[in-house]
Amino acid sequence: MIPMIPLVTASTVAFWVCAPIAVLCALGLLLARRPVHAAISMAGVMIALAVLYAAQDAPFLFVIQIVVYTGAILMLFLFVVMLVGVDSTDSPIETLKGQRGASILVAVGMGILLITAVGQFTLGKAPRASRPRTTPSAATSSRSRRCCSRSTSSCSRRPPHC
After folding, report:
1. Predicted structure pTM score
2. Three-class DSSP category at 141
3. Backbone CA torsion sign across 35, 37, 43, 46
C-alpha cells in the first residue's frame, strides 16, 4: 500500500503565509493608536488579500484589489489624515463610557460563534438530518415472510409487498 502524501500546492503555501499576516495586520489596524499606523496596517491587509487572490488564480480580483483598494482608497484615507492633522495629542479620557467593555463582549461572543460554526463543519462532520427508518423491524419482516409464503387464513392482513 502506498502512503498518502498530502498535496502541497502554491495556493496552500500562500494561504498559510498570507492569512496570518492579514490577521496580524487587521489586529494592528484595530489596536493602532495613530492613524498613520492604522493606514499601514490596512495596506498590509489589502496586499495580503491580493496575494491570496493571485494564488487562487483570480487575476482580475488581484489587480482590482491592488489598484482600487490599496491604491485609491488607501490614498484617500492618507489624504484625509493629512488634512485633519496627526500632530494633535490623543486624550486618554474616554468620551463614551462602557464602549470598550461592550466591544470586548461583542468580540468574544463573535469569536465563540465563529469557533462553534467552524467546529461543526470541519473535516466533513457537518450535522446531518436524521433519516426516517425505511426497513421494517425483524419481527415484522419474519411475520411478513410467513404470511407471504403461506396463503392460509392465519395471516389476517397481507402486507402490501406480497
Report:
1. 0.51
2. helix
3. negative
Contacts of 52 (CB under 8 A, 6+ apart): 14, 15, 18, 19, 22
- What proportions of the chain, in percent to the nearest 5, are helix, strand and coil? 65, 0, 35
Q: Is 40 exposed, middle or buried, given 0-12, 13-18 or 19+ CB atoms closer than 10 A? A: middle
Alpha-carbon distance of 32 to 106, in angstroms, equals 19
* 38 and 27 Cβ atoms separated by less than 8 Å: no
Rounded-to-integer distance, Cα 112 and Cα 150, Å: 62
- DSSP assignment letter at 73: I
Q: pLDDT tens digits, residue range 19-76?
A: 999 999 999 999 998 888 888 899 899 999 999 999 898 989 999 988 888 888 888 8
- 41, 32 in Cβ contact below 8 A? yes
Q: 10-31 and 35-55 are packed helices; what angle lies between their axes, rounded to 10 degrees? A: 160
